Amino acid sequence: MTAREAAAVPGSRQEPERAGVSGEVATGRPRLEVLDGLRFVAALAVVAYHFTTLDRVWHRRADTIFPDQTAAYGWLGVHLFFLISGFVICMSSWGRGVGAFLLSRAVRLYPAYWVSVVAVSVVLTVWPYVEQPVGLGDTLVNLTMFHEPLGASTVAEVYWTLWAELRFYLLFSLVVWWGLTYRRVVTFCVLWLGAVTVAKAVVADGHLVHTVLMTDYAPLFTGGIGFYLMYRFRPTLLSWGIVAVSFLLAVPQALYRTSLEAYPGEAVPLSWPAVVLLAVCFLLIAAVALGWLSWVRGRWLVVTGAMTYPLYLLHLDLGGTMLYLWQGSVPAPLLVATVTGAMVLLAWLVHRYVERPVAPLMKRALRWISAMVRHRVRTLTPRTAEEQRTCK
User: Fold this and answer.
1) What φ, ψ does residue 74 adopt, rounded to 5°?
2) Mind giving me the DSSP string for 59-113?
3) CA dist 31 to 40, 46, 225, 277, 331, Å?
4) Which residue, among 148, 170, 169, has the nearest Cα to 158 in the 3D structure?
5) Which positions ≥6 away from 61 have C-beta within 8 Å?
6) What is the mean pLDDT of the chain?
């Protein structure tokens, strides 16, 4: 950001970039280890929701096993995920080109994802209790992570969030290609939120426009971006406005999800718990952006953050299968706690022995392929007369 652009943002300051959360590029402020911890909390909320409220995990009414249904709103952990994603992706993209941005996303997502596709496919083939396995063709398509737009059945239900993330990356890559500045990121958020508002008002449900714009979850990503602008440049009316509009647009989707959970096929009254918990998610990221949680530090938070992604990918189908097979052997709460611990350990193993060694190899391979493609394109591109004379 130029000095002139920085001066245009009240209270902003230019800062050198350094390693940030999860190894991403951030500003010169201390590492945001608290975000790693929050991601792990979000993952545990989703795990608790799946393990204690889904009837198909136990093959009977889950509320007869866990009558209080404490984790009934654990699905809002995904909303917290998306808020954090908006924050971290904006942070990690600053100062990068679009190629480096997309490369970093591929290296981050695919290694653990490939392990998940293979592991879940094998487990569901042997023990098809939580879900039915898909065919070999669909499984191979799943390895691309673009199985949903390609019309293939999904190997694991939880992969739907990856398609949302991918669409966010593709949309945000446009502003990365343009070059990230405060004004351009604000413009991107305003245009995206405006398009979402119009699409919800005038475009019929199920239209391609809703898929492209992600009208259900876009406000969560823009909310995270707005919070990062506060963190990097300090709060302004523009950044607060982005966050406020994002929250208001996120409320209807949370209420709709509540209606699906509690009143399938019926009209549902306003569900205050969902709105309150959604507000808590926004307030947590606001506390990070404003520095109120800067005291939450510790290397252990980085470790939990690293386990979050593989834990999310594997827990439902592998952990759910363990719950079904072992139910009745020990009290259900103890069984859930034990299986959750096993899934956390498995997630750490995937991170330590798959993600860490494979990521640098994959990065080098993709860079080599990119260089070869660029070289090939240059050799096939007709040279100008001046270039030909220079070569001679």
Assistant:
1) -65, -20
2) TS-GGGTSTT-TTTTTTHHHHHHHHHHHHHHHHHHTT--HHHHHHHHHHHHHHHH
3) 16, 26, 18, 26, 41
4) 148
5) 55
6) 88
Reported residue count of the chain is 392
Cβ 113 vs Cβ 193: under 8 Å? no
How many other C-beta atoms are found inside a 10 Å radius of the C-beta of residue 14?
14
Look-up of token digits 């094998």: 122
CA angle 285, 290, 296 (to 5 degrees): 70
Read off the tokens for 258. 């509540």
340-361, pLDDT tens digit by residue? 999 999 999 999 999 999 999 9
Q: Which residues contact 173 (CB under 8 A, 6 or more apart)?
A: 98, 101, 102
Q: What is the mean pLDDT of residues 104-117?
A: 96
- Alpha-carbon distance of 179 to 349, in angstroms, equals 37
The answer to whether 158 touches 316, Cβ cutoff 8 Å, is yes
Q: How far, CA to CA in Å, does 242 sit from each of 221, 227, 285?
A: 11, 9, 14
Of 184, 188, 56, 162, the residue nearest 110 (C-alpha): 162
CA distance 56 to 51: 10
Please tell me what DSSP assigns to residue 192.
H
Distant-in-sequence, close-in-space partners of 106: CB < 8 Å, separation ≥ 6: 362, 366
DSSP 134: P
pLDDT tens figures, 291-331:
999 999 999 999 999 999 999 999 999 999 999 999 999 99
